[in-house]
Amino acid sequence: MTDTNTKKGPKHWIKSTLFFLLAALLLAYILVEAFAPSQTVRIFGFKPYVVLTQSMEPKINVDDVVIVKRPNTESLEVGDIITFSVDINNDGNDEVVTHYVYSLEYDSSMALTIKTHPHFENPDNITPDRWELSEDNLLGEHILTVPYIGLVIRFLQSPFGIAALAVNAAIVVGIIYLLKRDNPATSEKEK
Length: 191
Known about the structure:
It contains 5 helices and 6 strands; from the N terminus they run ααββββββααα. By secondary structure, it is an alpha+beta fold.
C-alpha cells in the first residue's frame, strides 16, 4: 500500500511555501501593529484606519475603513485626502483624523505647513480646520475606502468580540480534534 502523503510534488511544495510566507507576513504585520503602530505605514507601505466621526460624510462614512499609503509631500495637492494625527481637544492627546487638504504652504526654510478641512457639500462653504499640520503629523495619503468593515473591526477589538473570537476558536479546535480522533484512516496511519 502506497502512502500518497510521502510523495509530495512541486505543486504541494509551492502551496506550502506560499502559505507559510503569507502566514509569516501576516504575523509580522500583527506584531508591528501591536508593538509599533506608528511604523506600520513606513514598513509595509499601507495602513487601515477605522473612521469614527461624520466629518467626511457622505464621501467617507462612520465605520468605513480608509487605507492610506506612505505620504509623499511633494505630490500632495489641495483636495487630496490625508490621514494625520492632531490634538483636536487640546487635551495633550493626538487623535487620528482623515480630512481634505485645504492648503499647502512652505516657509523660507522650506518647512511645510498643511491646513485641512472636513467634507462640505457646497464648495463655497469650505472652512479650514483650526489646526496647522507639519510633515510630522502626516500618517498617510488616502488610497481606498472600504465601506462598513469598521463595524467588524470595532467588534473584534471590544472585550465581547475578543471573548467571542476566543470561544469560536476553541470550538473549531475541539471539532478538529474530535474529527481526527474518530477518523479510522487517521488512527491507522498513527499505528
